[in-house]
Amino acid sequence: MSREHRFYLGFDSSTQSLSAILVRVDDGRADVAWQHTLVFDEAFPEFGTTHGVLPSDDPRVKVSSPAMWVKALEHMLGLVATSGVDVSRLCAISGCAQQHGSVYLKGDGTLARAVAPTWMDSSTRDACVEITTVLGGDQALAQRTGSRAFERFTGPQIRKFYRTEPGAYAQTARIHLVSSFLASQLIGADAPLDPGDASGMNLMDLATQDWWPDAVEATAPGLASRLPRIVPSATVIGVLAPAWQSRFGLPPARVVAWTGDNSSSLVGAGLVEDNRMVVSLGTSDTICGLMKHPRVDRGGTGHVFGAPTGDFMGITVFKNGSLARERVRDAYALNWAGFSEALRLTPPGNRGRLMLPWFDPEITPDVPVAGVRRIGLEPDDPPGNVRAVVEAQFMAMANHSRWMGTQVKVLHATGGAAANREMLQVLADVFGARVYQFPVGNAACLGAALRAWHGDAAGSEHPVPWPDIVRDLAAPVASSRVTPDRAATSTYADLRRQYSALERTTMLQTATGG
Ligand code: XUL
Predict the structure, then answer these.
(1) Is the pTM of this model over 0.85?
(2) Cα 82–Cα 84–Cα 88 angle in degrees, nearest 5
(3) Mean pLDDT, the chain, integer
């Protein structure tokens, strides 16, 4: 096939939906030819999920259905085939998925466990303590793997499974991340992991980009043989399986290793470097930046993951993202226009009124039991509460990302809520940084299509350097700039300190039962 006019397909299997984007590359220029999103709750109601998660009596347990993810992938491949795009020119496919979630398979490839724990699960505190104790404490674990033990990370999840369902663990031959599970479906074989997603397990040694034997041993017996291989992110791991080719009339497109949604977003939001960071406002809110050398968070909130470029990325993750904003929006029967209007009606700093937006147990900071606190804020004040939740989220983000040592001048905003310019003004003001939007809203999914292009080219006679890959579709839109207001930024400098103190005292009171 000539190097002209090719298509690259990217998938993003997120908490609440599966998205796909087809990127057309013609003479080195890229544009989006087609995109589609399937919302799990609406498209596959037979699985009974709410916001992509199965019901549970225990608020810490957040599991989903691997069978639903496969059904969505299958459905989406059918839509790709009938998209009107000339799919015979589909050269490569890649994807990303919610990080940390794990799928347990028997030797014959069927499910050894009907459900998959997701990144929202926080039910593995005992496993975290046990693993940390054996491996010499939080700092030792963080130095090796990039993070102390976190409840949603796959190692603690595996340990809990082994402890609570030893019979099913014994029947498990392979444990996949959501990303490698779906990649396996595409190639019809057992797919390896990339370092970007494997670093969210508390099992990979950042320095060697391979499994850390001590951690593997401390997690569960016989785990080494149950883990996939780890390969560099740009690896072609196979081709689209013959069964998909014949069923949908698709070509034997190459499949590039899948990764986690955050490392994929880093590509789809322009692979930021010095003084720039990516803020993703989705089900989880995250802030991340590229790192040449791993710099671990000594405070124990952030993570270092592998980046798709072979470098590293620093990231801090908040569980109370879009669902918390929706809780406030719905409590006052607002739509998003009304939510924005509330932000316009209220002053930066909210006259000192604060909210701790822990509608669900929070990851950053570590808040195991949900509980919203309002300081000087009446529950029957809709605009005040809208501003309070947004300011709280962004002040927490600014405070808890300082460990990365980035002097943030520019923020690249992506994810659903990045379309809301009133929210972006608060973001700009809190950080004192310019904020930009992107031509494609779903950076994770776009990043997957761009990684497919990069991986496909990397193995050819015409490798394409990263700056060319991200140039057309993953560059900030100049006219979208949101500029910080100096007075507002100085208001937030004070308020951020107050917010931080409030976080600390509330956590202390909760810990001591006060
Ligand atoms: C990352 C994390 C979330 C999920 C969301 O550590 O837990 O951002 O990847 O899909």
Answers:
(1) yes
(2) 85
(3) 96
